[in-house]
Amino acid sequence: MKRYLLPLFALVGYLLLFSGCGTQEEYKTISGVVMGYSFKIVYKTPPYAPWSFDSDLKRELNKYIQDIDKSLSLYHKGSVINQINNNKSMEVDSIFSVVFRETKRAAQYTGAALNITSKPLQQLWGYNLIHYHTVTDEQVQEVLPYVGFDKIYLKEGRIVKDDPRVTINLNTPGIGYSTDLFAQVLQTHKVVNYMIEAGEAISCKGVNPSGFPWRVQLDRSSSIVLHLNDKSVTIHGKLYELIRKDNRFFSYLFDTKTGYPSENPLVNVIIIEENNLTTGLLSLSLFSMGLERSIQFIESHPGIQGLLFYYEDDVLKTYATSNLSTRHETQYFP
Question: Which of 59, 140, 249, 319 could hold 259 in an S-S bridge, CB 3.0 to 4.6 Å?
Answer without folding.
Answer: 140
